[in-house]
Amino acid sequence: MSAGNRILIRGGTVIDGNNSPGFQASVLIEGDRIAAVGKLDSIEDAEEIDAKGKVVASGFIDPHNHADSEVEGGILKYPLADNLIRQGITTVICNQCGGSTFPIGHFLDAFDKVEAVTNVAILASHGQTRRQAMKQTGILKPCPEVWEAMRNLLREEMEAGAYGVTTGPLGCTQDQIPTAELVEAALAVAPFGGVYASHIRDEGETCQHLEAIEEVYTIARESGATGHVSHLKLWGYPNWGTTEPVLDIFDKAKRQGVRMAADQYPYIGGYRGFYSLLWNFQGPSNTDPAWRQDAEKEVARQLDILGGTDRLIISSHEKDDPLDGKTIREAGEILSVKPEAVVTELYLRSPKPSLSAFFLAMQEEDVQVFMKSEHTMVGTDSHVRVPGSGASHPRNFGTYPRLLGKYVRQEKIMSLERMIFRMTARVADQFGIKGRGRISPGAFADIVIFDPETVLDKSTWQNGYLYPQGIEWVIVNGRITVANEKFLRKGFGRAIKRGGEMYAI
């Protein structure tokens, strides 16, 4: 269609993103905008979509996505990778967990040339600006001189269109990355209305997660930036059931007028490298029996934290690997070794297999408690996935349909209107994305039409490449990308930039 296209969506239940009841209405799209919402007659030259019995919602905005950098080039290399758009995502916020993309201006300029399937907004990288600042100053340790150079670089990134700064101090000590440095990063973006988003220092692995979340609160309070905790979770069975003290920190922030929220994916498992089980183990990687014994003891400790040997599922990057999709207990049976010996057995092979793993480290009850909280919104922690590009977490294909199907229709843990609010306007408001996230005249025409009776995810731990069902139509910037659940192999996404102006805070 040309830039002057018209689309009339007829007879659907419009859920506008404002957490208000759905209503029967038609939606008229002209060009890249919503022109009207209400009782509309036939429109001359308009393509009509029959939405009777369907829900018409704003396109979903993913606040935590890695599309910019994963899969050897990410969305720039695979602009039509449809695992995002076919679950209803029309905008992603990239460069997460400390970030690897720098400078963002180059990425945004390149993005607008590749005709990608989704819109992209981006955060500035604390990790990369920190490295550049150390290079500029010649000082390879945290100090005020480095922080000043880092702040200048972050301000340039904000002027180029970033929506805030992303940090990833996971596992870092105060000597390595002090809280004071993170405050300085947040101070650089706060005058622009920016977000401070963090993959926190600890998500429960060492039971320091409360201190890590409290740190985000402190940084938001001292800087004036909007605090954001990435992929909120309670990792490890020793922490299960302790959601209340976590949410107390968010409640405290709200009482004190500190803006702070979190995103969350609806799965009990995370995704990491298989050999990360040896991250905390110090010792030579050789066949010394003492080394193996100590390494296996460390692996056993971590498996115990997960809750048992059936809560780690191996995901192989090798074709026809018999270990793919197997629990570590099942892998031990195949290799004729104890489960805790599987890691060292494979690690010491030459060459060692290329493996990742799903760590089922959370419990469903906690996932639902966080989901119901006013402080959370939907996020995927996903990235571009195309067949043959390695293992895939089911969230890469199924996050939003899973929430709509499993948690709204089947489990009934909240209303459809509230869930859609968490997927759309809640995210737009948190990050300051203008003109998207709501169905209203004048807004950009990013729209999802789905069947509330059939929508559901299909991807599993064993097969993460299954498309969902029930996401019938997806429109991006007024152009149809998915029609009758069929991907049209066309992309109409744009780079979305925050205005580079500074605000008084």
Can you put this structure into words, describing what you see?
This protein is an alpha/beta fold. It folds into 2 domains: 59-268 and 361-434, Metal-dependent hydrolases (TIM Barrel); 271-359, no CATH class. It has helices spanning 70-77, 104-114, 126-137, 144-159, 179-189, 209-223, 243-255, 289-306, 328-335, 342-347, 364-372, 395-410, 416-423, 425-431, and strands spanning 6-15, 23-30, 33-38, 47-50, 55-58, 60-62, 89-94, 119-122, 124-125, 164-167, 195-198, 226-229, 260-264, 270-273, 312-316, 355-359, 376-378, 447-450, 471-476, 479-483, 486-487. It starts with 5 loop residues before the first strand and ends in an 18-residue tail after the last strand.
In whole angstroms, the N-to-C terminal distance is 43 Å
Name the structural class. alpha/beta
CATH superfamily of the largest domain: Metal-dependent hydrolases
Query: What is the overall silhouette?
Result: globular
- Please indicate the count of domains: 2
Unreliable parts = none
Just give the CATH class of the largest domain.
Alpha Beta
Please count the helical segments. Answer: 14
How would you state the average pLDDT, rounded? 94
Tell me roughly what share of residues is in helical segments. 25-40%
Strand content: 15-25%
